[in-house]
């Protein structure tokens, strides 16, 4: 009888300790991206991590891994599917291989500017494409981040399409990024983001293309003398989480979603403002910033936007144009 009482008491104690452990368990999410710690994307991801921890009373911890520390862009996309990472920033061009139509916003000259981008972000079209991506992958789009208009940097002025003939230009390792350089006769060279600075410095490539804020925080202006305002692509980033990660946070999913959407808005506002301010800043650094007539570049690309090789439908194209 005495033994039974002791056993019962021990069992009750273990149960209480187990319940307490469950009550105070922390779910950890790995947020991976390829951007530097000084970029708005990383700073706002860190802000989101702090906010999520605070609003969930520590039940959800989000650890942010910047600068390709958990893999390059292709690898972190793959990592979502195998549970190596839980949340990522990635470009629509990189998810094209999983669900093509969602890449439409990254195609050359298809977005008219920041206001058009905002309309797309809030549109039924974006919601439909996000759901299509979810059905194809089991990963969910939680936010759209403004990345900016891409411009070509080089060591010579680029003012007309003919100036790009034969130019060895680094592009991200995604199919749609080949359209613009191919249309103007350049020699596109896919390369990981982390390798670009050294490749420019050593002359492995002659040029690269990125938005002004990226050119600044990656310091490409240190190894390129000209910024040519081609504005050939208006880029976005997607914030994506796996279904598994969202299921693991349980009732805190709504908090995670809301905070990451707010982080997306903060980054978007900062990048848009930076685009406005940076032309003067670059010129103050002694960099030649060339104004470019976009019309000839756009004319070279336009026939390809409704050709056989695009992953979106003509209906998608028309609906985006009408926003």
The number of helical elements comes to 13
Q: Specify the CATH class.
A: Alpha Beta
The third-level CATH topology is D-Maltodextrin-Binding Protein, domain 2
* Radius of gyration, whole Å: 23 Å
Helical content stands at 40-55%
- What composes the largest sheet? 9 strands, mixed
CATH superfamily (homologous) name: Bacterial extracellular solute-binding protein, family 7
Q: Helix and strand succession?
A: HEHEHEHHHEEHEHEHEHHEHH
Pfam family, one: DctP
InterPro entries: DctP_fam, TRAP_DctP, TRAP_DctP_sf
GO biological process, one term: transmembrane transport
Subcellular location: Periplasm
Characterize the structure shown:
The chain is α/β, with parallel strands linked by helices and 323 residues long. The protein has a single domain (26-322), classed as Bacterial extracellular solute-binding protein, family 7 (D-Maltodextrin-Binding Protein, domain 2), CATH 3.40.190.170. It has 13 helices and 9 strands. It has helices spanning 2-23, 40-55, 73-82, 92-95, 114-121, 124-137, 179-183, 196-201, 212-217, 243-248, 253-284, 295-301, 314-322; strands at residues 27-32, 60-65, 87-90, 139-154, 168-171, 187-190, 207-211, 226-242, 288-291. Strands 1, 2, 3, 4, 5, 6, 7, 8 and 9 form a 9-stranded mixed beta sheet that branches. Helix 2 (40-55) packs antiparallel against helix 11. The longest helix is centred in the last third of the chain and has 32 residues, at 253-284. The radius of gyration is 23 Å and the shape is globular. The N and C termini lie far apart (78 Å). Mean pLDDT is 92; it is low at 1-23.
């Amino acid at each position: 009888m005495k033994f039974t009482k002791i056993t019962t008491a021990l069992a009750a104690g273990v149960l209480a300790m187990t319940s307490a452990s469950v009550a105070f368990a922390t779910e950890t999410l790995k947020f991976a991206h390829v951007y530097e710690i000084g970029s708005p994307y990383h700073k706002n991801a860190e802000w989101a991590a702090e906010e999520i921890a605070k609003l969930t009373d520590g039940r959800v911890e989000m650890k942010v891994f910047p600068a390709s520390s958990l893999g390059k862009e292709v690898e972190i996309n793959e990592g979502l599917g195998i549970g190596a990472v839980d949340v990522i920033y990635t470009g629509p061009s990189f998810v094209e291989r999983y669900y093509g139509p969602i890449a439409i916003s990254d195609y050359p000259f298809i977005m008219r500017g920041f206001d058009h981008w905002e309309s797309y972000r809030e549109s039924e079209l974006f919601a439909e494409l996000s759901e299509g991506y979810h059905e194809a992958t089991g990963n969910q789009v939680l936010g759209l981040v403004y990345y900016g208009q891409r411009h070509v940097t080089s060591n010579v002025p680029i003012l007309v399409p003919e100036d790009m003939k034969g130019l060895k230009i680094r592009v991200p390792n995604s199919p749609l990024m080949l359209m613009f350089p191919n249309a103007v006769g350049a020699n596109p060279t896919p390369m990981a983001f982390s390798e670009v600075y050294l490749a420019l410095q050593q002359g492995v490539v002659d040029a690269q293309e990125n938005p002004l804020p990226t050119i600044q925080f990656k310091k490409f202006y240190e190894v390129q003398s000209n910024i040519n305002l081609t504005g050939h692509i208006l880029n976005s980033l997607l914030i994506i989480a796996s279904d598994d990660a969202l299921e693991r946070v349980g009732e805190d999913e709504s908090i995670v979603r809301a905070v990451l959407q707010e982080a997306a808005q903060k980054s978007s506002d900062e990048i848009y403002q930076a685009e406005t301010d940076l032309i003067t800043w670059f010129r103050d650094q002694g960099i030649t910033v060339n104004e470019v007539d976009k019309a000839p570049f756009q004319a070279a690309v336009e026939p390809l936007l409704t050709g056989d090789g695009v992953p979106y439908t003509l209906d998608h194209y028309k609906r985006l144009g009408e926003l």
